[in-house]
Amino acid sequence: MKRFELIAPCHFGMEAVLKREIVDLGYDIAEVEDGRVTFYGDEEAVCRANIFLRTAERILIKVGSFPAETFEDLFQGTKELPWEEYIPADGKFWVAKAASVKSKLFSPSDIQAVMKKGMVERLKQVYGVSWFPEDRESFPVRVFIMKDLVTVGLDSTGESLHKRGYRKLTAKAPIAENLAAALIMLTPWNKERILVDPFCGSGTFPIEAALMAAGIAPGMRRSFTAERWGHIVEKRNWQDIREEAGELIDLHVETDIQGYDVDDGTVRTARENARLAGVEKLIHFQRRGVNQLSHPKKYGFLITNPPYGERLQDKESLPALYRTLGERYRTLDSWSMYLITAYENAERDIGRKADKNRKIYNGMIKTYYYQFLGPKPPRTGRTEKQNGQGAV
């Protein structure tokens, strides 16, 4: 079976979470850099990473890397890569995206054009043709240039992995599904704990939590570009990994996952998205303003993406909104609160300095993930029995 070096881009700041996911799948890490994790795997790994990883943006098959300070270097380096191992004579190929950081070559459009020429020249020589029909399967290429080192990857995913296939409807300012999953995974929450999102919007945080609780792989309900690359990844691998994912699902798990929003239409949207994700029975959505936030039990989690105030008229309401959130949070006994926001006065208006915060780019917006930590619950009941400490 073929062995690949695979590159998994992710949101900046989420590399450690993604690395842990990849290790948990059983693959060896090659390198961790800003915004991506490289690891080794076979054909099955291409399928398993696309279907199972919750925090990655896509999975690239590394074609090669080389230094380039001029466009001639870029052309020659691209031409030297073994494109024929991946792209057939009738394949459609192009450089879908180019990114450059701290490098002499920085124009994305020029980088894309020069690399396309290099690919064409290589394949013309190998296949002995002067023209390519490009009328069959697609082979999009992505390139990163960091300090004049070019890294080239074949995109096995297609549409970003954050598109799970369940969010057909969106509310205002939705958070990406893979970022929501990563933020949940940065907390100690697990399926036996309470989770409430008082600004649930499209329902992304509750749905991603429910998918985790039920063991549903995030890529089960979508397709991938590499599914049509039978010469690279045999089709049976996709079927086998989907069957493996299906066997791990447990929809009978008991959960306390709730999502609130002040708008009726938004709540209906969240419910429909949960239905499409197959987890509607694991989440309780309701119309409720943040001023009504309450819960009778202890040791729960608030995980949320409150309004940032992108529009001027919205900014005027933010101080009162965050003050109310802080007031309601203080009434929750022994809870933890995690919120991602670009609102700079969040801590001041909540009325408490966060125990931790982490800078995260949500798209192009600089945000902070504020972490207000509550006490750990006592090790009682089932936990004690599992450790042999309780009565049998």
Summarize this structure briefly.
The protein is of the alpha/beta class and 392 residues long.
Keywords for this entry:
392 residues; alpha/beta; VC0802-like; Rossmann fold; 2 domains; seven-stranded mixed beta sheet; 12 helices; 32% helix; 24% strand; elongated; disordered C terminus
Q: Overall mean pLDDT score?
A: 93
User: For the record, what is the CATH homologous superfamily label of the largest domain?
Assistant: Vaccinia Virus protein VP39
The largest pleated sheet is described as: 7 strands, mixed
Number of strands: 14
Q: Could you describe the 3D structure shown?
A:
The protein folds into two domains: 3-155, VC0802-like, CATH 3.30.2130.30; 177-215 and 250-383, Vaccinia Virus protein VP39 (Rossmann fold, 3-Layer(aba) Sandwich). A hairpin with a 2-residue loop joins β2 and β3. The chain is α/β, with parallel strands linked by helices and 392 residues long. The longest helix is centred in the N-terminal third of the chain and has 20 residues, at 108-127. α2 packs across α7, α3 (71-80) runs parallel beside α4 and α5 (177-185) packs across α6 (204-214). A seven-stranded mixed sheet has the order 2-3-1-4-7-6-5. The model is unreliable at 382-392 (pLDDT under 50). 32% of the residues lie in helices and 24% in strands.
